[in-house]
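Ex. 9. Protein: Alpha-D-ribose 1-methylphosphonate 5-triphosphate synthase subunit PhnL.
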Amino acid sequence: MTPHLHIENLTKTFTLHQFDGKQIVGCTDINLDLEHGEFIGITGKSGAGKSTILKCIYRTYIPTSGSMMYHSDTHGLIDLAKAEERDILEIRQKEIGYVSQFLRVLPRVTALDCVVEVLVEIGTEKAAAVAEARAILSHFQLSESLWESYPNTFSGGEKLRLNLARAMVKRPKFLLLDEPTASLDQGSKASVRDMIIELKRGGTSMIGIFHDLEFMESVVDKEFNMRNGIMVGGYA
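Predicted structure tokens for Alpha-D-ribose 1-methylphosphonate 5-triphosphate synthase subunit PhnL:
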């Protein structure tokens, strides 16, 4: 079986026009195969290039060079590095989830509605969406007293748990996780671990970046390390 995602010679550089076009390397010559239902963990110091890889895959960043061949349910085999923006938006909505440390939602939308809208967008009937949203918010131990509140009032840990709920509630085909346990206590980490295991059993493929090595080693199938924008090693 061909990989779910085949990354070849992925490079991303940033041009600092205010400094006479100086080039900053985010990541360079990245080669990676993600199998169906596999979870790859990426480690490295801050600034090593880990987040750059995730943002290129999600197409928050447009890669400078290289290819990212992804098996899409709606588009077949597609190069995420060169795909049209409208195709990327559709794949994000239907197939790819992204968990960031930072919550970006409309300011006057409640926590519950933030999760419900994700399900409604993919065609879930409203009543079922509300029930599923309530269930996953409970799973991530987000207090019911916060469900009708606005997330901009939440603590960092509460915002991260809401981000996890939004990304995982639709059981995506492919999930990207950027430090999914940062600012979480041990009980919340256990909830994240349980959901990751459940998603893996359901066939979700995942790539995550971590500083919490103990947590990472409890859920991933392979590990890779980044240093100065280069992938320097990995093991299963």
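Check your answer against this statement. The mean pLDDT is 92.
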